[in-house]
Structure to design on (320 residues):
């Protein structure tokens, strides 16, 4: 079984705690960011909850008021954002920033209990259809619990059970075009949904993880798995190709060259010519020669040796 690229990269960190950074610091591509309005919620408990469930990650926090441009997000493979209780200030600007982040290969988990048009991300996030779930002003105060898992084999929702909220739940928002419903609540509202844009992934959870007192069940696991999933769709090696399309997700190869057309790029292929002989042992690195025939024993296989008999005459000119 092939281990996902992000898990391979992050497993070497094995952090047992969590870290918080000032905005703008340089971070490894193995970190995630939690963004919210610090004035109305406490970011630190959620950061710690995610760090406990994502031990191979650095988990940082950022007050939404300090977000000024996409460069503050691009060092992270995934960002969790909730703008509830943030008011209407700068929602179009912030929506543009998050859209640009997804275009750069970043993954976004949008958490919301309302999706009210007056208090949600606007700008390109809405106008260019980055949003997974629509907006509504109804049904927000109706308690609900997890219902049918529509895509049970999706990595986000496997073994997720009994998620629910007592108040300020998803509301009657509908799924937007191009999005995939993963879990719906017993009242048929959206609990979990995803979409994949050309460069990055987006997930939505229909609750407010910053207010855990109103939540129940495995909501923390659902949130953490959503972050993992969107992060796997990002551009981990920063070569301009999202990991879900990249034939070498851990090794930068913008040209995506693949000599043997095996789906594994040359930059990370251990058998470039696809002849079942590893590069380290292959006497013709880019010419398939499974038998490794070498007439003159000069360590250059016959299929790539320009002087097979080692007589000093090029094969094209050699009469013997």
């Amino acid at each position: 079984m092939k281990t996902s690229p992000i898990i391979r990269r992050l497993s070497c960190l094995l952090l047992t705690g969590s870290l918080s950074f000032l905005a703008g610091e340089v971070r490894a591509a193995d970190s995630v960011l939690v963004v919210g309005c610090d004035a109305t919620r406490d970011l630190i408990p959620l950061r710690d909850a995610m760090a406990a469930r994502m031990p191979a990650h650095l988990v940082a926090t950022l007050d939404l008021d300090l977000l000024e441009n996409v460069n503050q997000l691009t060092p992270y493979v995934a960002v969790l954002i909730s703008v509830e209780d943030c008011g209407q200030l700068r929602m179009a600007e912030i929506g543009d920033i998050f859209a640009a982040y997804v275009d750069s290969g970043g993954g976004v988990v949008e958490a919301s209990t309302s999706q009210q048009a007056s208090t949600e991300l606007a700008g390109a996030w809405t106008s260019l259809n980055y949003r997974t779930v629509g907006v509504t002003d109804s049904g927000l105060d109706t308690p609900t619990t997890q219902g049918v898992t529509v895509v049970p084999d999706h990595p986000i929702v496997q073994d997720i059970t009994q998620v629910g909220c007592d108040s300020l739940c998803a509301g009657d928002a509908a799924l937007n075009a191009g999005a995939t419903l993963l879990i719906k609540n017993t009242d048929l509202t959206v609990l979990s949904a995803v979409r994949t844009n050309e460069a990055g992934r987006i997930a939505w959870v229909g609750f407010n993880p910053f207010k855990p007192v109103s939540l129940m069940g495995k909501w923390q696991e659902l949130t953490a798995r959503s972050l993992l999933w969107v992060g796997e769709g990002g551009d981990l090696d920063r070569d301009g190709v999202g990991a879900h399309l990249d034939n070498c997700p851990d090794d930068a190869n913008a040209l995506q060259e693949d000599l043997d057309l095996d789906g594994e790029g040359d930059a990370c292929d251990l058998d470039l010519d696809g002849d079942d002989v590893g590069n380290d042992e292959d006497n013709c690195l880019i010419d398939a020669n499974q038998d490794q025939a070498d007439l003159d024993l000069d360590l250059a296989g016959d299929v790539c040796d320009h002087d097979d008999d080692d007589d000093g005459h090029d094969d094209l000119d050699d009469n013997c």
